[in-house]
Input
Amino acid sequence: MSAIIPKIAFDFDDWFKDWNTNGYKPQQDIKVINDVSYDECEACTLDLFIPPKADGEKYLTLINIHGGGWITGDKYKRRGLGLLYADMGLLVVNINYGLCPKYKYHESVQHCFKALQWVYDHADEYGIDTDKIFVTGDSAGGQLACLLMATQNNAEFRKKLGVADSPARIKSGVLACGAYDVDAMLKNPMAHDIIKDMTGVTPKHIEEYPYYFAMRTIDLVDKDFPDDVIITYGGYDAFVGGYEVPLAHKLDDLGKRYFVHRGAFPGDHCYHLYYRRKTSKQFYDLQRDYFDQMRKIGKIEKLDACTKR
Output
């Protein structure tokens, strides 16, 4: 691994948020199933957070993809988040995926598609409504979540990536402080070692990476991208500040409807993981409303504390 310093920074950030967030006490009796394999790869495991439901009811399901710059992180550090979302009545699928440099970036993407397929394949077993599968992620996980939504209907992309076509689809999702802008990453010296670990090449030679096309998230967003996506980011994000702007412009150009929520503090990367903060609680309140509307009517009519675009 060449990105030692970024890994230390991400791990410290995760440790601090772990201390803050994972003490969440659910209001319901949430069943937790840990370390389910969703692929033969040893990295591909998931945890399930299953709330009570009425007989005959099907779950609205949320796939959560952790962050960590594609080089570190673990679903264990998002266990409090799993409980929090399950308390909203969602079946939460909290996934691990192959991290760089042991696995290259395109393999991480392949793993996320396989996790989506696992959810679809096990819908009957867990009472999942396959028309109401959502995805969320923070930082690198936000980028991966955005990429899944952008390319799930893209047969050419799937073929190039080596992902089989599937009826499994994501209805919409919540993108938190995602690293969507690869051009900004390539210009940032602090990200150069991360890019080398992700691809095996330096930024100068990035086009030699056969799967560079899969890193260009915003280019892949098209007319099939879901409506009613929530995009949230810090006041000025210390890691990916401004990365949401080109994504918003692309969605505007496509005439897509989305909602924007902003954290209160400058430099606040993934502020929502500090669930005790006033702004974070506000964010979870609006998500509760978001998922309630998606569950009941399948679209969003209004979200308080958000800017509708």
The beta strands are 31-37, 45-50, 59-65, 91-95, 128-138, 172-176, 229-233, 258-262, 307-308. The first strand starts at residue 31 and ends at 37. The chain has one domain: 4-296.
